[in-house]
Amino acid sequence: MKEKVLITGVAGFIGFHLAKKLIQNGYEVIGLDNINDYYDSGLKYDRLEVLGISKDNALTLNCIAESGTYKDFKFIRMNLEDRKNLPELFAREKFNIVCNLAAQAGVRYSLENPEVYVDSNVVGFLNLLECCRHHKIRRLVYASSSSVYGQNKKVPFSTEDDVDHPISLYAATKKSNELMAYTYSHLYGFQTIGLRFFTVYGPWGRPDMAMFLFTDAISKGESIKVFNNGDLERDFTYVDDIVDGITSVIEKKIINNDEKYSLFNIGNSKPVKLLDFINQIEKELGKEAKKEMLPMQPGDVERTWADVSSLKEEFNYNPSTSIEEGVSKFVEWFKSYYN
């Protein structure tokens, strides 16, 4: 009998790629997403279309839609904070594993719209934990973020580092997820595994992320905003490497049998200077960027760098996509998708 996995945030960037991977690996997948309008919902519907779910079938709240492409994929439009329908979904579908990628994303947006972060990332996550508790879920894998490290100066960032000083509400909600997961693992005995993501990019990526913003502006001959005068470094991680890592966490049968709660960094572990990243996009587009040099943005950090040694040791995680290859694949998709 096939294992059944719930992926929340399935119309999102990483969730979409993970769903394809797990279906190919023989899992039965239920995808959940509320398809909010934080960024262009058309991109989310197009991702679902690739998974065999038409826009018409994705519009109705709390109604299961079957894929016309994959027999082992179904979709439901639902809010995580729905205390009536989410438990009913768990009772009906009897999941083996849950992968929570749903969240209100974006560091800067959290400065302007704090309430939606608490609703989705805290209330919604609590609702999910309650469902896992009452429906005997074996393992909950959930997305945390490198933003929890705040202005940590020690590099590379380790899960042993202090993360008690988040500098954005988004980071604070992700830190709260880790604390809540610890409590539920301790009290109710199911396994929770948090993955701190580091700057994921690639085809079908989010329009609010640097990769997309830079490529779009440069291709149109518009200026790009370069914060901290370009003196930034990011541990850019290609989406296929991220998905391979998540899949390994989901598929491993026994993980630290005595340890119900664990946290891992998931990144490339090779920080890239922002100006070098921009230069690579320029090469792929064959156009030079018009750079608007600006000071540091509130809530932002100068450098991210993941220590992924524990993820390598536990799950044989091995990110292998170079920045040159990854940027090339993104630009190729961007040109194709936007003609």
UniProtKB/TrEMBL annotation:
Protein name per its UniProtKB record: NAD-dependent epimerase
Taxonomy, superkingdom: Bacteria
InterPro entries from the UniProt entry: NAD(P)-bd_dom (IPR016040), NAD(P)-bd_dom_sf (IPR036291)
Keyword NAD tagged: yes
The entry's keywords: NAD
Domain NAD(P)-binding residue range list: 6-329
